[in-house]
Amino acid sequence: MTPAFLCLVFLSLTAIPAGATDDEAVTDGSLDVSEVIAIANEGISTRLEHGDIVPNRNRNADPCTARGCKWPKSGSYVRVPVTISSSYTREERNIIIRGLVSFHQSTCIRFVWRRSSDRNYLHFFSGTGCWSYLGRQSRGQPVSLRKNGCLYKDTVQHEVLHALGFHHEQVRSDRDTYVSILTQNIQPGKESNFVKVGTNNLGTPYDFDSVMHYSKFAFSKNGQPTIVSRSNPSLNFGQATEMSVNDIARVNTLYEC
Ligand SMILES: [Zn+2]
């Protein structure tokens, strides 16, 4: 590990005040990721696709990771520079940092404070809702995590996984083998959230426990399911509170950790 990597780890751990390390203190256990995102993004004017993804800048429709939108790897690590808006309180900032450091513990992604020489970087700020671009863009790439709405560890991980190049689990290319989409229960105008994408699944299995999987009732207009497991229709899912084993495996495979 180089001093630059150590720097963020050091800052992260010392920046978290004693007594604030319990995730339960900052997590609303009654909502899953897709509910948090849907509520935070309801009615906002930001143009979004699939609920929380900003249409990419100057990109075509090919799978993201085939278009050079990975973050570059140097040596053993993928260094992703970040800035965090000063409008967050210390506690809010620490929720974001905890989400970032969770990648350090299981992948070769290393989030480091942006230096002036870093052209491309993620900028976390309290925007209109919870949203992110898909994969690396150019220059300062915003990740919106609105105060009072998006600051949960699983939501931070979800939006960061988008920025690393990952899409929602329920739209992956092979999803029809595993789930049925019940279009008759989807809110009018929200159907595009369920459009399948030509994802690169990196040899990982379809994962109902992914932090990128929306809930069974996502965008439901009538309280009935919009997504149902084909093998077990009574299965409940989309309730991950953190990255799954497969989410982590995907990062490690894509970035050759
Ligand atoms: Zn998302």
CATH class of the domain at 3-166: Alpha Beta
Helix content: 10-25%
Mean pLDDT: 86
Distance between the termini: 14 Å
Query: Spans of 5+ residues with little confidence (pLDDT < 50)?
Result: 13-27
* Series of H and E elements: HHEEEHEEEEHEEH
Could you tell me the number of beta strands?
A: 9
Q: What is the CATH-assigned architecture of the domain at 3-166?
A: 3-Layer(aba) Sandwich
SS summary, helix count: 5
Give the amount of beta strand, in percent.
Answer: 5-15%
Q: What is the CATH topology assignment of the domain at 3-166?
A: Collagenase (Catalytic Domain)
Bound compounds: zinc ion
Cα radius of gyration in angstroms: 18 Å
Rough outline: globular
CATH H-level superfamily title of the domain at 3-166? Collagenase (Catalytic Domain)
Brief summary of the model shown:
By secondary structure, the protein is of the alpha/beta class.
